Structure to design on (656 residues):
């Protein structure tokens, strides 16, 4: 492991923070405190954290409807994220986006889309802007196995490929598109194999292992950064919860299957590894869990105490020009 | 207007607007299918090779594969990132394949991200029948776009308006969809050489009159003018009002005209149901009810796909005779 101890600890902290955040909002959703729709990424934390840790601060990310993990891994303010989920004025999008549309352009987080696969053309545009500006940034777009069957997947990768745009296409293959298993939606074993069709490099990564993700992205980021076009990274992972909260997931998959994947839990296995390599002690880990929970509680308090948006907000920002 | 004004076509006016904006602002770039080589300057002929590619190079004049979702979405995102892309998508009929990128992404990004971004994207496309292009190349559909919050909708009717409105569109900080009628491309009119802008939301009275207000857009403005000439001989005076932009809409000028004439006909090449004409009728009924001395008439394309056969196409696209008939119904 060539990473500094501080960086490893930071990665672990991000993973436990994502998990604590999502378990908390799951609870708040079930008791009616948070409304709307929630898509949780519990089980997939290694992908968000491993990818973001391998990027530079001045790079860009584009997220999707299952995006809390990407946001936290990238560094979006947790209080303002929570306030957004509460629909409050202090929310990162002034309460007008909600869980599926978190964005923080101040830190190059280009937003999340509620339409499966729709974020890939947007990543291509960001890549094009980077190319036209002649900088060496890259843009990473997260999408799932479901989105890989959208036309936008094909169009976007192909366009990024022919124009040699600095885009990292990260497929989080969590095995299910809503209730449809990956194996029933395509015949290829690996989504990464499709890279060949576009003349670009594709790679399968163990998405339950944060270090494997980190290393794979670190190794492959140079290709787009140096102007040699996009890469397609498929991280095999698993969604512990339903597609959305309230989804009876046991109707389309077995509890046993879920338990099998949980044996390779990304947070626990990373902790075990860090303890074994004497980066952490069990006590440190426990303390970090408590700190994450405290941070989330503070965010909930902030959100609850924040005001609702004023009525005028409903017609604000439809346009830059006045509303009509 | 000064001495530099000369007669050019609608198409040349469009080209000139893009050319002058690209010269002025390095963040403006063009993107679309077959922009440079097809017919030596794009399927619409608005981006002649020798004018654009030679001058600005392939980085700023980008030919795309037939991947409308990818390049329209990329345009929206490049706009967010500080550029001013002008995306050409040949026919409005093709927008269905990338509709999500237009109406869910470009139109909503600013709002749903709480005002963090602006999206100065222009999408240019052609509309209209009359060329026997059948159901997939003849629609107008601007009402669909006007229905969605977050898009500005421009439908110019003259070369002068086309140039001024396109320059405004490129400089505007919001997503603009710019609808060019195919038949208007060869229309000539006076256009100043230097760049100029026409503000959005300012209708123009194309012809003053006293008896009936006719609100029309795009090619229909010309049909309304033809009808006005004929009716003048019968002593009926039409006032033709061209909103020029459907979003934002200059309600005031329309209402002022109806206040004067007390009668209203709306000519709309888009489908009749739930369309632009219905919207104008609703606004006048709501805000100008007391001005009216007769029912409001819509002359629009009936709710059928555009047929190929010339014999049928001419029946569905609004024409001079139908406008005259509508006027007679509320004046006799």
């Amino acid at each position: 492991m060539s990473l500094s101890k501080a960086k490893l600890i930071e990665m672990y902290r991000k993973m436990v923070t994502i998990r604590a955040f999502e378990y908390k909002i799951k609870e708040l959703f079930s008791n009616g405190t948070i409304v709307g729709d929630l898509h949780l990424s519990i089980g997939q934390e290694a992908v968000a954290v491993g990818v973001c840790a391998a990027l530079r601060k001045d790079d860009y990310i584009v997220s999707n409807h299952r995006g809390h993990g990407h946001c936290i891994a990238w560094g979006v303010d947790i209080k303002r994220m929570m306030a957004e989920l509460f629909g409050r004025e202090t929310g990162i999008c002034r309460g007008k986006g909600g869980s599926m549309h978190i964005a923080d352009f101040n830190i190059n987080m280009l937003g999340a889309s509620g339409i499966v696969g729709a974020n890939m053309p947007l990543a291509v545009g960001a890549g094009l802007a980077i190319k036209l500006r002649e900088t060496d940034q890259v843009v990473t777009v997260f999408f799932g196995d479901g989105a890989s069957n959208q036309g936008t997947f094909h169009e976007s990768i192909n366009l990024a490929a022919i124009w040699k745009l600095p885009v990292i296409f990260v497929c989080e293959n969590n095995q299910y598109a809503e209730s449809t298993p990956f194996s029933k939606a395509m015949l290829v074993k690996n989504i990464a194999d499709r890279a060949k069709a576009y003349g670009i490099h594709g790679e399968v990564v163990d998405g339950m292992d944060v270090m494997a993700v980190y290393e794979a992205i670190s190794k492959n980021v140079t290709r787009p950064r140096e102007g040699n076009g996009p890469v397609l990274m498929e991280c095999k992972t698993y969604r512990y919860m339903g597609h959305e909260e309230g989804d009876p997931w046991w109707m389309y998959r077995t509890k046993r299957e879920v338990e099998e994947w949980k044996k390779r839990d990304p947070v626990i296995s990373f902790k075990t590894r860090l303890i074994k390599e004497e980066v952490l002690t069990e006590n440190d880990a426990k303390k970090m869990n408590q700190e994450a929970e405290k941070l989330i509680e503070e965010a909930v308090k902030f959100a609850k105490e924040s005001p609702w948006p004023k009525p005028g907000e409903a017609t604000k920002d439809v346009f830059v020009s006045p509303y009509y | 207007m000064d001495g530099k004004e000369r007669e050019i076509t609608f198409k040349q006016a469009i080209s000139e607007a893009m050319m002058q904006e690209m010269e002025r602002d390095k963040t403006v770039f063009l993107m679309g299918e077959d922009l440079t080589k097809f017919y030596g300057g794009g399927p619409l002929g608005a981006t002649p090779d020798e004018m654009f590619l030679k001058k600005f190079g392939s980085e700023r004049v980008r030919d795309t594969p037939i991947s409308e979702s990818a390049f329209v979405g990329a345009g929206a995102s490049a706009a967010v990132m500080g550029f001013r892309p002008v995306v050409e998508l040949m026919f409005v009929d093709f927008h269905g394949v990338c509709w999500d990128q237009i109406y869910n992404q470009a139109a909503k990004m600013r709002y749903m991200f709480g005002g963090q971004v602006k999206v100065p994207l222009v999408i240019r496309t052609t509309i209209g029948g009359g060329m026997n292009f059948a159901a997939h190349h003849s629609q107008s559909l601007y009402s669909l776009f006007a229905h969605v919050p977050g898009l500005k909708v421009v439908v110019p009717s003259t070369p002068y308006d086309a140039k001024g409105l396109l320059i405004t569109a490129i400089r505007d900080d919001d997503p603009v969809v710019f609808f060019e009628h195919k038949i208007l491309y060869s229309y000539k009119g006076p256009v100043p050489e230097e760049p100029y802008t026409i503000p959005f939301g300012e209708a123009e009275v194309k012809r003053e009159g006293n008896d009936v207000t006719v609100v029309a857009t795009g090619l229909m403005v010309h049909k309304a003018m033809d009808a006005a000439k004929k009716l003048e001989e019968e002593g009926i005076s039409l006032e033709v009002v061209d909103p020029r932009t459907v979003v934002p809409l200059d309600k005031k000028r329309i209402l002022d005209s109806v206040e004067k004439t007390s009668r209203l006909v709306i000519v709309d090449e888009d489908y009749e149901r739930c369309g632009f004409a219905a919207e104008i009728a609703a606004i006048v009924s709501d805000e100008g009810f007391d001005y009216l001395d007769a029912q409001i008439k819509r002359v629009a394309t009936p709710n059928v796909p555009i047929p190929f056969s010339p014999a049928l196409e001419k029946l569905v696209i609004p024409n001079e005779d139908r406008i005259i008939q509508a006027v007679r119904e509320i004046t006799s």
